[in-house]
Amino acid sequence: MLNIAVIWGLIILFIIQPGTAHDGAVAGGQLFIHALLPYLLPYIILTQWLLKMPSTSTNSPVWRRFVKAFVLGSFGGFPVGAVTVVEMKKNDQLTQKQSEFLLAACHAPGPMFVIGFVGAELLGDVTIGWKLLISIHIANILFFFLTLFLLKNSDENETIEVPEAKKPKGIPLLEAIKDSTTIITLIATTVIFFSALGTVLAKVLATATHLDMGIATTALLAFFEMTIGVQSATDHFSTLEIFPILIALILSMNGLSIHMQVAVIAKSANLSMLPYVVGRIWSIVLVPIIFYLLL
User: Fold this and answer.
1) Which segments of the protein form a coiled coil according to its record (predicted)?
2) Other CB atoms closer than 10 Å to residue 96's CB: what's the count?
3) Which of 65, 68, 226, 279 is the most buried (most CB within 10 A)?
4) How far are the Cα atoms of 29, 48, 90, 93, 94 from residue 58, in angstroms, in the given order?
């Protein structure tokens, strides 16, 4: 009943505020085309292509598979890490517990997004973008080593043998492009929907509580959708000294849109989201602190 009430409540809000919902959806769509699609699509296609290439070895060391997942997840952008881990799980290259821990560890924004869009365009300094990227990866590497330690002491640390390579049914590149369209559609849908939802709720909150519109908009958009959240923070708080730290905090939160993308992908392999939640709390705490120390 609660879910139905929430859904009908949101439908009514969208009907009452059609212009606001439209503006939020347009902003989300424009940011997806401008800031996400150019930076993310090439990595997703290449990652899928790499994962669909038949393995040349039937006995790959477990550490090599961990590093492969971590590298692809760290440099491919959201949600390439989740896609990589799930694909390796489906190919029997990772166990259930390994996949669940790596789902949390192999999770980072793409370097082109952080350096190009956030650093150069929003923060106005590529060097600051690099420092932010380094902060994110320091926190991720520390969590990755924690993951390795926990897996080493678990019952599932055994080496699993990769099945013998099967002849691919189609052309790997074409299969990669086909699968990438599904992922991109998921990303676009969540970004546009949560951008519209966050914009509508921000206006309602500001009107009901007399809260400053800039604070309400940035807080809710950052909660729902990271990309439009950092854009809103730039529009309203770029003159403040804490602005770079605020951007780091929003990036480390990721936003509900990205978490939903990961949850949908993880669901296809029946992976628990608990380690992922712990990993996100880890990032929210560490990334802004490390970034502040590097500034």
Assistant:
1) none
2) 13
3) 226
4) 44, 20, 16, 10, 13
